[in-house]
Amino acid sequence: MSIRRARAAVVAALLATTLAAMTLAPAGASTGTAAGGCRAGAPGVGDPYYPLYGNGGYDVQHYLLKIAYNPATDRLVGVATITARATHNLCRFNLDFQGMTVRSVKVNGKAARWRRSADHELTVTPQRRLKEGRRFTTVVRYDGVPRTFVDPSAPDVPYGWIHTDDGSVVVSEPEGSANWFPLNDHPTDKAAFTFVVTVPAGLEAISNGRLVGRRTHGRHTTWVWHAPDPMAPYLATATIGQFRLRTYRTPDGLRMYDAVDPDLYDRPVDPQDPASPTYGEIADRSLARQAEIMDFLAGIFGPYPFSSGGGVVDDAEDLTFALEVQTRSIYPYFDFADPISGDSVVVHEIAHQWYGNDVALAAWKHMWLNEGFATYAQWLWSGREGLGTPQELFETYYNEIPADDPFWDVVIGDPGIPNLFHGAVYTRGAMTLQVLRNQVGDRKFFRILRAWAKRKSGGNGTTAQFVRLAERISGQQLDELFDAWLFTPAKPTYGAPAAATAVTAATGGARSAAGSGSAGRRRASPPPAPPAAR
Ligand code: TRP
Ligand code: ZN
Description:
Elements: H1 3-24, E1 39-40, E2 58-70, E3 75-86, E4 90-96, E5 101-107, E6 110-111, E7 113-116, E8 121-125, E9 135-144, E10 148-149, E11 159-164, E12 167-171, E13 191-200, E14 204-206, E15 210-217, E16 220-231, E17 239-241, E18 244-249, E19 255-260, H2 279-287, H3 290-301, E20 308-309, E21 311-314, E22 329-332, H4 339-354, E23 360-361, H5 368-384, H6 390-400, H7 423-440, H8 442-455, E24 460-461, H9 463-474, H10 479-486
Parallel strand pairs: 1-4, 2-13, 19-20, 19-21, 21-22, 23-24
Antiparallel strand pairs: 2-3, 3-9, 4-8, 5-6, 5-9, 7-8, 10-11, 11-12, 13-16, 14-17, 15-16, 18-19
The structure holds tryptophan (TRP) and zinc ion.
Tryptophan binds at residues 154, 157, 159, 173, 321-324, 348-349, 371, 421, 531-532.
């Protein structure tokens, strides 16, 4: 080994240990040497799945994202203005940012020093330290081709900034956002957003919230969207392309924005049968039911939490899942192959506006609080549409998935990164809620769901907090039930909270919400596939 290589190795080793130390440091802990009564913000919030995502030492209030995008070259030019409050005296702090080229960073109007590392950290050292409790503004100028992200949570599923034939579709859960703007990338740091997106004239640019301006200047159009409701930053979008945009209000006065790719009206769901309905028509029909769906869910979960709504459907082949983008869910076209599945996925994504978005995760391992709840909402909708009650759906899955199926190996209360979006997180998550419902009874069950939405509104939740709430409201001890359903890699005995591992005949335990045994009872067959189980 040459001296230079040896030195490089030592430096690399030192860097690795430093990074490891940083990773282990609790949020907000000192990770640099104290200097003049300030310290560095932590490079991560210590999420066990993604330790270096999010950052310590500050709290973002607002992102102003000015973006120009040219679909012909895939190039993006961005200016991100981030308004934050220091939570301790900061000599420097980190943002999460990956790829593209940083041109400059300013803090409070003055040029700042900055440095990037391979693991998406952008470290910013302002000229003057930032005082605890004070607001400060960071402006990052950058450009380049945003990278479509692939990570171990879904190795076959590209996400983040997805390039399409006519623009982009931007779906960043869990860790795609840092590939298109610099940010504090963790759901515990919610903020308001303003998007100023410039695209070639003739294209639409769709983001979250309310459209507050649209101006064509020469060959370009600038779209301005404002999203005032606190938002986990992975839920931000700048989806660009040709869209048929419809702006309207629900009967309750909520502003709605629906955007459907016009190509989908030329695409029959059955390519052999040109007379079959098109994806565009089926999407329109399901989107036309959004107000009805919001009403239905609001009647169960409590008031719709945000100040606008709507949905986007793109024909992009690389878009392989729907995402509950805040106030503007995004759907792949194949979700609208038939009206029943179309409606069901719209229910799923709208349910996430309560569970997932308004009540966000405190850490990624609590994912079942998002996906189990949104799936349960589909089950409730199925019941109301006469397509099978939640209890029937529960029984179908329970009876049809044998105990030796790997489905039961996923510990959905802490599934691990590779299983973050496993079908079990969805289906076993919904089954857990049905078991809880049978255990505590309808009145208390729905009180628990509503109380969870209300108390955690605008904030973040953990599984332990949900269990405590359920125990408080029901007056029952529920840890065995939740242990069996969330934390045991085995098929639980039917409905029973028993620690018993033997799977008994599926008879006792759960009470059928439907009143069982009636001959005319509709079977839920086949069960709707969980949205991400592809
Ligand atoms: N949360 C999405 C849903 O509504 C699914 C999802 C988001 C996903 N990101 C993903 C699935 C990445 C697979 C890979 O269900
Ligand atoms: Zn979901």
